[in-house]
Design goal:
Helix content is about 25%, strand content about 35%. It is built from 5 helices and 13 strands. α4 packs antiparallel against α5. The two termini are about 15 Å apart.
C-alpha cells in the first residue's frame, strides 16, 4: 500500500489498548454506596461492554492517548495553542472554562462514560477519576478533513496556571467495517483504507 505521509493519522492507545482489553467479557460495575467525598474511588454504576475495535475504528468515538498527524505527534499534556499549531487550524470551544471540584469532575467523567459505555472508555476514564482533578476545565474541538473530529479536554489547577490536555476523543467519519483491516504480522495494528489512511 502506498504511503502518503502528509495524509496519515496514527492513534496511540488504539494500538496499545488492543493488547490489553480485546476480548474481555462484558462487565457490570455495581452501585457503591459512598459519601460524596468518595465519589472518585467508587466503581462506575453502569454496564459496559468490551470494545470491538474493528467496529469502533469504522464509525465510533475513540479515546487515544496520542494522535500523529503529518508526522507530528499530539500527546496528552499539550496546550490548546500547540494543538492549533500542529493541526493547522483554530479550535472551536465546546465548553468554556468552568470550575469543578474533584467530586464534580468525577461525576463529569461518569457522564462521559454513559455516552460511550465500553471498555476503552471505562479504563481511560477510571484512571482519570482516580487522579481526583479539581480546578478549571475546558473542551475544544477541531474538524479534521476526511477523518472526522478531534475533541480535547483541558485542565488547569487554577485560573492562572497553564492548561494541559488530559483526554482526547477522536470521532471518525463513518466508513464500512470491511475497510478496517489488521496489519499483517502486527495483530494489534488496525488500518482504515481510504484517503487519508488512518492507522
Amino acid at each position: 500500500m502506498k504511503k502518503n505521509h502528509r495524509q496519515r493519522l496514527a492513534l496511540g492507545s488504539g494500538v496499545l489498548a488492543l493488547g490489553l482489553i480485546l476480548g474481555q467479557p462484558t462487565r457490570v460495575f455495581g452501585q457503591a454506596s459512598a459519601p460524596p467525598d468518595a465519589s472518585c474511588r467508587r466503581d462506575y454504576p453502569i454496564p459496559t461492554q468490551s470494545i470491538n475495535y474493528e467496529r469502533a475504528f469504522a464509525s465510533e468515538t475513540l479515546a487515544p492517548d496520542r494522535v500523529s498527524v503529518n508526522q507530528k505527534t499530539l500527546r496528552l499534556g499539550a496546550t490548546e495553542k500547540s494543538l492549533n499549531s500542529v493541526l493547522g487550524a483554530s479550535s472551536t470551544v465546546v465548553e468554556d472554562w468552568k470550575p469543578r471540584t474533584a467530586p464534580q469532575q468525577c461525576e463529569y467523567l461518569l457522564a462521559l462514560l454513559r455516552e460511550h459505555p465500553n471498555s476503552m472508555h471505562l479504563y481511560r476514564l477510571k484512571k482519570l477519576q482516580l487522579e481526583m482533578m479539581s480546578g478549571m476545565f475546558r473542551v475544544s474541538e477541531w474538524q479534521l478533513s476526511g477523518i472526522g473530529r478531534l475533541r480535547a479536554f483541558f485542565h488547569k489547577p487554577s485560573a492562572t496556571d497553564a492548561e494541559a490536555s488530559y483526554l482526547y476523543y477522536l470521532t471518525l467519519s463513518p466508513t464500512s467495517p470491511g475497510k478496517v483491516v489488521r496489519s499483517r504480522g502486527r495483530a494489534y495494528v488496525l488500518t482504515r483504507e481510504g484517503v487519508p489512511v488512518v492507522t
